[in-house]
């Protein structure tokens, strides 16, 4: 598994993504956004978290239109894997690789805390190391994570089984107080139609070491490396 | 030539910032505020004097970048 982590001005979680991929056994490298092409043989593109271009205009709006995104779109169209985490999810939505938009959190606060997610399906390249409906303990840190889309888009995502993760509590009960940002249907992450692109607000790459209190994030990277 | 692009949230899209401003105006005692929706204004200096061409260019700019048409509307004016 050869992974390219795209670095934009203002990205700040590229090191965490790098560490998580390396730990899972991937051959990972960090690529500057101004390159026109991805490294030869790239299997997985990671758009890391952070505040690309200072969140100017809208979160992910400027990065979503960077030159490298043409290469990422072509990679995805070929069936290559793309993982967008946090700001990376916002970039995927702004670039048109995933539908919908991430709006300001319902209560206007930046939320930075541990968060449980329910794994909605475990038959994708991103999720095989988990059990179906397993509640995994990861982290969130975002001000704009409230996923919204047209009603028919939400219906489509649900009907096609493209919701990857939902916010839940420690017992795996979805929604209610467990939803940190008002996201529609408690959506924390979604897949593209061909299930090769995943955008998610939470940070699995931050929970890969017992030293920081948990390793539930490892499964996602192990799944990818085994894919 | 001066132009202005105004980007606003579509009707029905939740606007927590607008709501917070609305609440603040109420607590300041500003009378008669029924509701507030927040948007963005871009003042743009356009080269040349072809108003129609400028409008078309700025509509393209809005579609491509200035607005996220999933949740936002835009209006182009030549001032």
From TrEMBL, chain A:
<keyword id="KW-0067">ATP-binding</keyword>
<feature type="active site">
    <location>
        <position position="203"/>
    </location>
</feature>
<comment type="subunit">
    <text>Part of the FGAM synthase complex composed of 1 PurL, 1 PurQ and 2 PurS subunits.</text>
</comment>
<feature type="active site">
    <location>
        <position position="205"/>
    </location>
</feature>
<dbReference type="InterPro" id="IPR010075">
    <property type="entry name" value="PRibForGlyAmidine_synth_PurQ"/>
</dbReference>
<feature type="active site" description="Nucleophile">
    <location>
        <position position="86"/>
    </location>
</feature>
<protein>
    <recommendedName>
        <fullName>Phosphoribosylformylglycinamidine synthase subunit PurQ</fullName>
        <ecNumber>6.3.5.3</ecNumber>
        <ecNumber>3.5.1.2</ecNumber>
    </recommendedName>
</protein>
<keyword id="KW-0658">Purine biosynthesis</keyword>
<dbReference type="Pfam" id="PF13507">
    <property type="entry name" value="GATase_5"/>
</dbReference>
<dbReference type="GO" id="GO:0004642">
    <property type="term" value="F:phosphoribosylformylglycinamidine synthase activity"/>
</dbReference>
<dbReference type="GO" id="GO:0005737">
    <property type="term" value="C:cytoplasm"/>
</dbReference>
<dbReference type="InterPro" id="IPR029062">
    <property type="entry name" value="Class_I_gatase-like"/>
</dbReference>
<dbReference type="GO" id="GO:0006189">
    <property type="term" value="P:'de novo' IMP biosynthetic process"/>
</dbReference>
<comment type="function">
    <text>Part of the phosphoribosylformylglycinamidine synthase complex involved in the purines biosynthetic pathway. Catalyzes the ATP-dependent conversion of formylglycinamide ribonucleotide (FGAR) and glutamine to yield formylglycinamidine ribonucleotide (FGAM) and glutamate. The FGAM synthase complex is composed of three subunits. PurQ produces an ammonia molecule by converting glutamine to glutamate. PurL transfers the ammonia molecule to FGAR to form FGAM in an ATP-dependent manner.</text>
</comment>
<comment type="pathway">
    <text>Purine metabolism; IMP biosynthesis via de novo pathway; 5-amino-1-(5-phospho-D-ribosyl)imidazole from N(2)-formyl-N(1)-(5-phospho-D-ribosyl)glycinamide: step 1/2.</text>
</comment>
<dbReference type="GO" id="GO:0004359">
    <property type="term" value="F:glutaminase activity"/>
</dbReference>
<keyword id="KW-0547">Nucleotide-binding</keyword>
<keyword id="KW-0963">Cytoplasm</keyword>
<keyword id="KW-0436">Ligase</keyword>
<dbReference type="GO" id="GO:0005524">
    <property type="term" value="F:ATP binding"/>
</dbReference>
<keyword id="KW-0378">Hydrolase</keyword>
<keyword id="KW-0315">Glutamine amidotransferase</keyword>
TrEMBL record, chain B:
<comment type="similarity">
    <text>Belongs to the PurS family.</text>
</comment>
<keyword id="KW-0067">ATP-binding</keyword>
<dbReference type="GO" id="GO:0005524">
    <property type="term" value="F:ATP binding"/>
</dbReference>
<dbReference type="InterPro" id="IPR003850">
    <property type="entry name" value="PurS"/>
</dbReference>
<dbReference type="GO" id="GO:0006189">
    <property type="term" value="P:'de novo' IMP biosynthetic process"/>
</dbReference>
<protein>
    <recommendedName>
        <fullName>Phosphoribosylformylglycinamidine synthase subunit PurS</fullName>
        <ecNumber>6.3.5.3</ecNumber>
    </recommendedName>
</protein>
<comment type="subunit">
    <text>Part of the FGAM synthase complex composed of 1 PurL, 1 PurQ and 2 PurS subunits.</text>
</comment>
<keyword id="KW-0963">Cytoplasm</keyword>
<dbReference type="InterPro" id="IPR036604">
    <property type="entry name" value="PurS-like_sf"/>
</dbReference>
<keyword id="KW-0436">Ligase</keyword>
<dbReference type="Pfam" id="PF02700">
    <property type="entry name" value="PurS"/>
</dbReference>
<dbReference type="GO" id="GO:0004642">
    <property type="term" value="F:phosphoribosylformylglycinamidine synthase activity"/>
</dbReference>
<comment type="pathway">
    <text>Purine metabolism; IMP biosynthesis via de novo pathway; 5-amino-1-(5-phospho-D-ribosyl)imidazole from N(2)-formyl-N(1)-(5-phospho-D-ribosyl)glycinamide: step 1/2.</text>
</comment>
<dbReference type="GO" id="GO:0005737">
    <property type="term" value="C:cytoplasm"/>
</dbReference>
<keyword id="KW-0658">Purine biosynthesis</keyword>
<comment type="function">
    <text>Part of the phosphoribosylformylglycinamidine synthase complex involved in the purines biosynthetic pathway. Catalyzes the ATP-dependent conversion of formylglycinamide ribonucleotide (FGAR) and glutamine to yield formylglycinamidine ribonucleotide (FGAM) and glutamate. The FGAM synthase complex is composed of three subunits. PurQ produces an ammonia molecule by converting glutamine to glutamate. PurL transfers the ammonia molecule to FGAR to form FGAM in an ATP-dependent manner.</text>
</comment>
<keyword id="KW-0547">Nucleotide-binding</keyword>
């Amino acid at each position: 598994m050869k992974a390219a982590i795209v670095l934009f001005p203002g990205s700040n979680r590229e090191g965490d993504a790098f560490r998580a991929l390396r730990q899972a056994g991937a051959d990972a490298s960090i690529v500057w956004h101004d390159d026109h092409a991805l490294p030869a043989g790239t299997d997985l593109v990671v758009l890391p978290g952070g505040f690309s271009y200072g969140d100017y205009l809208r979160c992910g709006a400027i990065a979503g239109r960077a030159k490298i995104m043409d290469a990422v779109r072509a990679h995805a169209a070929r069936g290559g894997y793309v993982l967008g985490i946090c700001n990376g999810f916002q970039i995927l939505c702004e670039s048109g690789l995933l539908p919908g938009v991430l709006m300001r959190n319902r209560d206007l606060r930046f939320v930075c805390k541990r968060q449980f997610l329910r794994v909605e399906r475990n038959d994708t390249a991103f999720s095989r190391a988990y059990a179906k409906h397993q509640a995994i303990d990861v982290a969130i840190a975002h001000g704009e994570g409230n996923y919204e889309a047209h009603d028919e888009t939400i219906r489509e995502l649900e009907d096609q089984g493209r919701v990857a993760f939902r916010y839940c509590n420690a017992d795996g009960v979805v929604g209610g107080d467990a939803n940190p940002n008002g996201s529609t249907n408690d959506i924390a992450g979604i897949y593209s139609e061909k299930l090769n692109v995943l955008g998610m607000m939470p940070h699995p790459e931050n929970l890969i070491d017992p030293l920081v209190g948990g390793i539930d994030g490892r499964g996602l990277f192990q799944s990818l490396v085994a894919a | 030539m001066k132009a202005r692009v105004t980007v606003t949230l579509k009707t029905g899209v939740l606007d927590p910032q607008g709501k917070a401003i609305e609440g603040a105006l109420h607590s300041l005692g500003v009378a008669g505020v029924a509701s507030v929706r927040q948007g963005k204004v871009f003042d743009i200096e356009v080269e040349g004097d072809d108003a129609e061409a400028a409008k078309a260019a700025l509509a393209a700019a809005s579609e491509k970048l200035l607005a996220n048409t999933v949740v936002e509307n835009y209006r182009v004016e030549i001032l």
